[in-house]
Amino acid sequence: MTSTAVGVEIVPSFVQDAWWTPEGEVAGTDVRDASTGAVIAKVSTEGLDLAAVVEHGRTVGQAGLGKLTFHQRALKLKELAQYLNGRREALYELSHRTGATKIDNLIDVDGGIGVLFTFGSKGRRELPNAQVIVDGPAERLAKDGSFVGEHIYTRIPGVAVQINAFNFPIWGMLEKFAPAFIAGVPTIVKPATPTGYVAAAAVKFIIESNILPAGSLQLVSGSARDLLDHLDYRDAVSFTGSAGTANMLKAHPNVARGGVRFTSEADSLNAAILGPDAVPGTPEFDAFVKSLVTEMTAKAGQKCTSIRRAIVPRAVVDDVVAAVGARINERVVVGDPRAEGVTMGALASLEQLADVRAAVQSMLDAGGELAYGTLDSPQAKQADGAVGVVEDGAFMSPLLLTWADADADAVHSLEAFGPVSSVIGYEDLDDAVRLAAKGAGSLVATVATNDPAVAQQLVTGIAAHHGRVLVLNREDAKTSTGHGSPVPHLIHGGPGRAGGGEELGGIRSVLHHMQRTAIQGSPNMLTAVTGVWHTGADQNFGDVHPFRKSLYELKIGDAFRSELRQVTLKDITAFANETGDTFYAHTNQEAAAANPFFPGIVAHGYLLLSWAAGLFVSPEPGPVLANYGLDDARFITPVAAGDSIRVTITAKKITPRETDEYGEVAWDTVLTNQNDEIVATYDVLTLVAK
Ligand code: NDP
């Protein structure tokens, strides 16, 4: 950081692979400690050339990432996760200034690092060690198989711009960065002003780790109002923040007409529905109340996934309010996160506090009633342990509202982005579904019930209005990751008011940074483009059995064809007796012949697979280390006694493992009979030494 005229540090940007701060004296925007109001930093982008930042990503960033495969990128994420893991304390420390408590830090800092670990692992397990992803099987487009088509994914040729909200400066950055990085797309991070200094500290660690290729990560600290002016159809923006800003950015000509990919995650009035069976005294009722209090108070309720509407049977509204109030009284201590015992910190800024209070006032004016808490500044514990009202601290009491009219517009449309929730009563399950849908599209809902029929009716009723639904009951109450925590494996995002975007969801989020293209051509050409052997492409039946070749000697298309072997009734009977599989199709001529699929007794499919292994194997010790499974096995033509089979294997996909002395080889395997009819097809999966 460099200092301004008033001696406050300016949060630096990291652009074009160098740290940058404005030259000379700049006014900048103040950034304050959320609990004390003290100015702790300034941000300014005065004089920053955003066009050059974008260009750097598109050129240097694309080039560096383009040298790596999915697996190599995934490994770097794992390395980065390990590096950051050792530096969490420093990030926690800084994060306390944003009002974040220890638990909030676990969500933001550890959660963000967790996303890197998950993608580091998924990228290697679920993607090829390549740069192209083949999507689905090839379609035969000509009768003779000389013309085929399929879909491939390649990375978009521009930059992934993230415009982030203030609430999760680290998780918000890393959950968007990880999938873009695996895809091979350079990222430009634009954090929100009030907490951007925490993101900058994390970026500082990332850069000093020296793990990432040049240009793959840039950071713009401060406002970046003209950023979208420099983007075009090659680029993608993922926005998190208010619906107002999302709508404004969506209308930018480069998005509306220029083809910039834009995904947003904005306001969301998430619901939690209490099933009619979950009456007070049940584990589901307790889990529901616990979840509601957690969601109101974690991050001081500044979570896009927080429960804003608790939809409960009308008869238990008062019970829910009482139980929530009791739990807050028992557990929640508002104050500076640096003070011992504090469980709910400040909102991110005084502006945010004013916004939330104004939203609550509008809700009260529209018919809401305060059932717990007050709008006055609460007694807050300060860092030195003193308790009192802190004028410059963005503290707020948790607030629970009730509504005489469950249909009041305000409860379904106003998001008070703080520790605020409403309890509304429903008549029956249809009514609960109808009320949940009044949120007009949400990120997440919880359904708390131990009745499978209730779960089925509620979940199928509300699913299309939500990006994620948690079914909470006594079986998962302890192990559940919670209503408000998106997990990297599953989708985060939601329809309608929630922004209509989708993030995370495992490898899906990598694909969001890639273009799907239909490619058509001959099997040889599609093999060349994808690196995966296609049926009908050339095969190399050389003198050397492909099992005798090491991973690096083996080439796609290397193949082996066996001799024919005849199957007798004796073989089939012996296999039936040996394995105990005496299913009538293999043992009873009359019953087998009556079956529409068989001419009479036929060989077991597993007999054919076992024989095939015996026909294609090269038994001496060699580079093939193990067979770890079969994919997509299909039995097509029955084999009767007297028929013969042969097997042809072809090296289809070769995947070197980055960290092991071996790799994976998938062998296209085809069994044919004496008439060259296809008997069975599958892929044999082996591990082969390098
Ligand atoms: P904003 O929508 O104002 O800001 C979000 C991000 O967008 C910030 O990084 C901001 O940068 C940036 N931004 C704003 N205008 C532009 C622009 N013209 N061009 C480029 N970037 C821009 O939201 P706030 O953070 O102020 O939060 C306001 C409300 O948003 C909250 O009260 C809450 O209701 C909602 N919200 C929703 C979240 C969700 O996940 N669904 C998360 C957080 C907030 P800068 O900080 O520099 O202005």
TrEMBL record:
Protein keywords: Oxidoreductase
InterPro entries xref list: Ald_DH/histidinol_DH (IPR016161), Ald_DH_C (IPR016163), Ald_DH_N (IPR016162), Aldehyde_DH_dom (IPR015590), HotDog_dom_sf (IPR029069), MaoC-like_dom (IPR002539), PaaN-DH (IPR011966)
Pfam families linked: Aldedh, MaoC_dehydratas
Stretch forming the signal peptide: none
UniProt keyword rRNA processing present: no
Gene3D superfamilies according to UniProt: Aldehyde Dehydrogenase, Chain A, domain 1 (3.40.605.10), Aldehyde Dehydrogenase, Chain A, domain 2 (3.40.309.10), Hotdog Thioesterase (3.10.129.10)
Residue stretches of biased makeup (Gly residues): 493-504
Coiled coil: none
Region (Disordered): 478-504
Occurrences of domain MaoC-like (ranges): 559-660
PANTHER family: ALDEHYDE DEHYDROGENASE B-RELATED
Protein name per the record: Phenylacetic acid degradation bifunctional protein PaaZ
Organism: Arthrobacter hankyongi
Top-level taxonomy: Bacteria, Bacillati, Actinomycetota, Actinomycetes, Micrococcales
